Amino acid sequence: MPGPMGHRGPAAERAKDFKGTLKKLIRYIAHERIALIVAIACAVISVVFNVVGPRVLGEATTELFNGIAAKVAGTGGIDFGRIGFILASLLCLYVTAAGFNFLQGWLMTGITQRVCYRMRREIIEKVDRMPLGYFETNSVGDVLSRITNDVDTLGQSLNQSVTQLITSVTQIIGVTVMMVSVSAVLAGITFLTIPVSLVLVVVVVGSSQRYFRRQQTLLGRVDGLIEESFSGQSVIKVFNREARAVADFDVDNQRLYESGWKSQFFSGLMQPLMNFVANLAYVAVVIVGAFLAVAGTITLGDIQAFMQYVRNFTQPITQLSQVSNMLQQLSAAAERVFEFLDEAEEGPDAETPALPACKGAVSFDHVRFGYVPNKTIIHDFSCNVEPGQTVAIVGPTGAGKTTLMKLLMRFYDVNAGSITVDGVDLRDYARDDLRRNFAMVLQDTWLFKGSVLENIRYGRADATDDEVRAAARAALADHFIQTLPGGYGFELNEDASNVSQGQKQLLTIARAFIADRPILILDEATSNVDTRTEERIQAAMDALMQGRTSFVIAHRLSTIRNADVILVLKDGDIVEKGTHEELLAAGGFYAELYNSQFAEGPEEE
Amino acid sequence: MSFMIITMISVMLPRADVAAERVQEVLATHSSIEDPDPAAQVTREKGEGWRGVVSYNDVTFAYPDSDAPTLEHVSFTAEPGKTTAIIGSTGCGKSTLVQLLPRLYDVTEGSITLDGVDVRSIGLEELRRQIGYVPQKRMLFSGTIESNIKYGDPAMSDDDMRAAAEIAQATEFIDGKPDGYQSPIAQGGSNVSGGQNQRLSIARALAIHPKVLVFDDSFSALDYKTDSVLRAKIAEQASDAAVIIVAQRIATIMHAEEILVLDEGRIVGRGTHEELLRSCPEYLEIAKSQLSPAELGLEEEGGAQASAAGAADEKGGER
């Protein structure tokens, strides 16, 4: 029953590929097949026992009725022994059923939680394998929502839908068999309600399914918005955007409300409607059954059993409709999870050829690259770097200095030409093996919540405490670490804001020391650092660069002057290449850049 | 059936209760920074307008959960058409100092005035409309370049937007993008470089034609050349605004009319670049680490290139 406002949204938001997703999900769960089969078997056994129950109870009723009838007629009495036996076996039946039911629940919960666990882990692992480009175009909130909301929804609905699907189907089959065996006529009447139920299910579920998917999508967007307004609080305030930010949020929140309302309303409609149909069947069975009993073609116990079966017959149909709802939810959530898991990854890894320890020779050979196909950033770049050389990369803001470094780390692949390390093409390395040759010290330091010791050891997991200390000393970080409360055990907080920016940088340098890689990538920008720390950082970086091939995004004169090669980038292209003296003598862009930086002395005024 | 539902509810209720409590905790928190009492509120936007004279009068500030004040007895005045620069080491309270102006925090003691009016007597929206604030951190919003530059006033004209981008030296890279001003910006501005991010943030602040421009270490990701061109443009185009620059780089601020040297929350020196070189040891120390003596004018000045090359020699020699 689509309401008058039910057709506003674009039709594209229906579950995209319901069947495909479910198939994928089944394949995903196949892992757990033994537990799953046992759980299903338990569910079936439990239901079968439950289904037999009313029939046995009916026998007791018949026995009782016959006994009373016999007593009235004076031909005998109630056979309490027999009734007692019947009831005892009934009890056994129900206890067994409950036991299997319990076992089934225990197994299913284990299965679903393991599936969720695996999914979360796979998503996180996937995050590591994703090309950088993905995160430049997708919001963090969206990925976050897939890990939390979708996996959670998936876990809950998976548990319930599998259980209910099995029990419902078994129950329908079992009850049908029992009903037909009791009375074909009454069974026929009950079956008349099936088409009515089916039509209701199709209509209602059809209306609700697309809202479930939309609800999940919107939830991701709302999460992203919230995160953004949190991190951007100060800007929102100063630019008087509080009201607008709330209004923007309201738009999506309103849409979330609408899709949430609709999905909940339609799925909530199911139960009362099915109850209504069940009651109709119930009444019909009682009336017709009464006539049959009067006519003597059916026993009283049979009617009693039958009435219970009618209840048990419509109930699984209701449940099935709920299952289909849940499956919708399940597939919508699963689809979003799989969508992420199936997202194109970095190209497959090559098998790293057996190599001696990396010396650090790097060679760029006619490299061409652009982030977008028809926008080339680097046109034709060649350069040979000997092991141990220092390469300074200079150029104005946005010239693409980091692009070169990203190519070297193989975050992106070149469009043409090649980059080699020790004469081996980057693409012939497994990424891990390639990156094992690099250490980075960037301006955006990345430290995690944990002790100083752990943060430095991040460079090499098996480093001993002494090695960590030695690295810290080499990075001139030992002194300040000693002054921290707890020294090396000092806990950095989540965004490492309890140490200064400069100290953070020293820690990352220590980390690079301990990693001891042949090739370094350094971002020299030291803008957020006080003087003394800055000097220390520069000294530490110089020490680090000793004997390693270093690529430095250079700002310091001494680095630039002492570099073996200076690469001058402009508008994403390497315009000049050479030593400081050569480039100054050439009087080109470098000379201009160089002079503009230092022509700014007081004499300008 | 009913019994089962009751059982289910008894499981769900405690969950709902815990959730509701946590939500309530957030809802019950109120901002301590509120609009002034309408009766006491000063408004000049409709009448004579604000000039942009900012005065810090003996300002002391401590964060609510800390014992030691972050800023102590800070006083200075920033005037329209002039540049006031604040320099000092990390953690000395520079950013906090400028965040007090748009009332992201309120002073603990002392006062801040705009044209002689305590900022706490000006409507928050009106106050903040006078201030173009460029934050230190990357803070662009998902949307487009256009929506980010027009952030302060979505109704502004495209010409205003372009003019702001022009001053902020951002036109070159914006025009270089296939979609120009419609290019998408990812959450947090993660799909543009640090320098582009800063230039867009600057354009965003300039676009609202503020009376006070606050740059909170906003030139750090720019190379020296872009930095100097940008500052020259700002001086030329936004000449009626008071400019407050927080920086780490001497070169960024050495031409400021007044430079304040902040150390551990106190002003330890003030004056022009030349004065401070002579009078303030902290300033000299910072300057020496970044520029060569020749560049600082401590030695005889030669031609620009010669002195720079000389500086380079000395720097190189230090290794």
Terminal CA distance of chain B:
84 Å
**Could you give me the name of the CATH homologous superfamily of the largest domain in chain B?**
P-loop containing nucleotide triphosphate hydrolases
The overall number of domains of chain B is: 3
Helix content of chain A: 55-70%
Tally of individual helices of chain A: 19
Q: Which two chains form the greatest contact, residue counts included? A: A-B, 63 and 75 residues
Radius of gyration based on Cα positions of chain B: 24 Å
Largest sheet of chain A: 6 strands, mixed
In DSSP terms, counting alpha (H) and pi (I) runs of 4 or more, how many helices of chain B?
A: 12
The CATH class designation of the largest domain in chain B is Alpha Beta
- Radius of gyration of CA atoms of chain A, rounded to a whole number: 36 Å
Query: What gap, in angstroms, lies between the N and C termini of chain A?
Result: 78 Å
Largest sheet of chain B: 6 strands, mixed
Category by helix and strand content of chain A: alpha/beta
